[in-house]
Every structure is written in structure tokens, then in C-alpha cells.
Amino acid sequence: MRDIALLPPPENELPHLWQKPAYGVLLECLEKLRLEPRVWSLSVSRADTVKERNATFHDRREALSFLSAIIRSSLAWLDSDVEREVIWEEASKRLSERCGRTAMGEITRRWPFEDNGHGAFSLAIREPPLTGDSLGLKTWGSSYALARLLHELAFGPLAHLFVPGAMSTPDEVLELGSGTGLLGLAAACVWKTRVVLTDLPTIIPNLAHNASINREVVEAQGGRAEVARLTWGGAEGDIDPMFRIPNRYQLIIVADPLYDDDHPALLTSAVDEQLALSADARVLIMVPQRDETTKGLLGVLRKELSRRPNPLLCLDEDVVDGQDDWGEDNDDETRHVGFWWGIFGRAESERG
After folding, report:
1. CA angle 119, 120, 122 (to 5 degrees)
2. Name one GO molecular function term (predicted).
3. End-to-end CA gap in the chain
């Protein structure tokens, strides 16, 4: 008669380690506990997703206790060190998935875009583990929120740039602070144009990876994506030679660029150097209204843009509802946030 300790647990129950569950039982259980990375929706929060997934195993607390017990256990009853290492590694991954975005390991999310006349498509975006202050390795909610507005904006306040022959030659858009590249790649697809995605040298390898794995999708949509280093206010070695010619771009896009006191001035300087001096040139910026600090930085940015020798004024703006996972509240990591967007152009006195 088979040892009862090796039998799988009843349906919807976690095994008890004192029963010495078999390797296959543990591995199957850990697979069922997997949390897929969230792609935000206004109707479903990450907390709801976690709650729904953990309902199979009663609740989140039980799952955390089970995972912690595996990591603490010697798993001495398993047949080999290889099996033990696999179980420990999988349990560690499941635990990290429940400890907030900053604690997660590498993930890849696929972001869907509906067919709004440009054809439906999806983008695969890799996000390595966060290290130090490398926030550009994370996909922020503003990138998806703004990406989903691109079609609407192209037929609204940016329409003058999308009539045949209106864009600069060659047709291209510049994205500042691209991070993981979701916004810039989506812009290439939706607007069917060339987009230059830029960020710090340390962010470029992952950004280039995401551009590479999505190349076929972007080109099938009629767009192109190029990646280049561009540090706002950086030394010559931190800036690609292609940016030595100033004021080339008729359209600049940027999402969630402000999280330090010096960022408004640095971003303004980069915009001032790269934006064309023509009356039709535009800058599209999105800033999430997470807290008073972020709102204050936006106010500083607007003042900085208006004080330049070639002032930029906000010509159109709005706030849309969206989601983000900024913060450390692991019980409800995804939060609804108001995302402000604004379109800036040259002051009337500069348009002659």
C-alpha cells in the first residue's frame, strides 16, 4: 500500500510539510500559486486578482505561510539536492510575486492595444529586477495610460502633425526617458512613424532588448523604433552623437519624468535642445498625480518651460483615470491614479 504521505492533498488544499509531500506534488502546487504579472485595467485591481487566485487555497495568508515554510524546510525527504533546489527556487519566486513590484524578479508582461483604425497589436515588455535607483527598469502606469490615448490625440490636438507631409523629414518622434519602451514602441505602432527611444546609458540594454523583441510587431504596424542614449544635462559620452544637431524633432513625448527636485529643470533643458523651433512643434507630457510632491514638480516644470528664451506654454490638457503600482502597500499594490497630460507649444510671440 502506497505511503499516504506521498499522496496529493485534497483538491483546493495546500499540502502539509509534515506529511512529506512528493516532489511532483510540491511542484504542481507551486505552479498553481503562480501570480502572473498584472496588465492594468480600470475594472480590476491587482488586489482583486491576488484575492481571486488565492481563493483556491483559502486566502493569501495561508499561501504566504506555506511558501515561507518551504523556504525554511530542509526538504530532507526529497530524492536529491537538485529537486530541493528547484522547490526552494520556485517557492522563493512565488513569495516575491506577493511582496510588491520592487521585490519581484524579472518579469515580462504583454500589453494589448485595441484596433482603433491602426490594427490591434500587443507588445511584450521585459522588466528586470529593480536595483538601486534604476526606476527606468520598471513599466509605470503612465506609459500605458498615455499609449492608449495616442490614437485619440492624433485626431485631436496633434492632428496638424499627422496630415501627409506635416512631420519633419525623415518622419520621426523623440521619446525622452523611455524606460522599458512601452510608450515609444506603442507610438511607433499607432502613429506608423519612426520613434527614437532614449534613456540613461544604464537603462539602454533593457530598452534595446524590448525594441528588438517587438521589432516585427512595430514594423508590421508600419512603424520603426530606434534606441539611443540621452542623459538630460549629461556629459558628451552619455549622449548619442545623433543629438548633436539641435532642434530636430517636431514632436517629443514623455511619461512620468518627475521624481526628483532637479528633474523639471533637466527635462526642460532636454526639450529646449531637441524640440524644433517651428510653430507646429509640440511636446506631449504625462505626469501621474500620485501625491502633493508630484503635483508640485509638475507646477515647477510648467514654470520652467514658460521661462525659456523660446517659451513653451500648455495648449491643451486633461486628467484621465488610470492605474499604477507605485508604493509599498502589498495588500493593494495597484492603485487608481489621476494621470495629467498636457500638450505644449511655442508661445504666440515665437510663432512668427
Report:
1. 135
2. S-adenosylmethionine-dependent methyltransferase activity
3. 92
Q: Which residues of the chain have pLDDT under 70?
A: 1-12, 36-59, 99-105, 130-136, 164-171, 325-335, 348-352
Say what the pLDDT of residue 195 is. 97
SS3 label, residue 195:
strand
Domains of the chain, each with CATH number or no CATH: 4-98 (no CATH), 107-350 (3.40.50.150)
Per-residue confidence (pLDDT) for residue 169, from 0 to 100? 43
> What pLDDT, on the 0 to 100 scale, is given for residue 145?
93
Cβ neighbours of residue 172 closer than 8 Å, sequence gap 6 or more: 193, 194, 195, 196, 249
The predicted pLDDT at position 323 comes to: 77
* DSSP code string of 270-327: HHHHHB--STT-EEEEEEE--SHHHHHHHHHHHHHHHTSSS-EEEEEEEEEEEEE--S
How many other C-beta atoms lie within 10 A of the C-beta of residue 285? 27
Q: What is the pTM of this model?
A: 0.76
Of the candidates 302, 295, 274, which has an alpha carbon nearest to the alpha carbon of residue 340? 295
Instruction: Output the CA torsion sign for 71, 28, 60, 45.
Output: positive
DSSP structure string for 329-351:
-TTS--EEEEEEEEEEEE-GGG-
N residues, the chain: 352
Residue 197 confidence (pLDDT): 98
Q: 505511503: which residue's cell? A: 3
* Cα distance between residue 323 and residue 337, in whole Å: 5
47 closest CA partner among 330, 244, 257, 277: 330
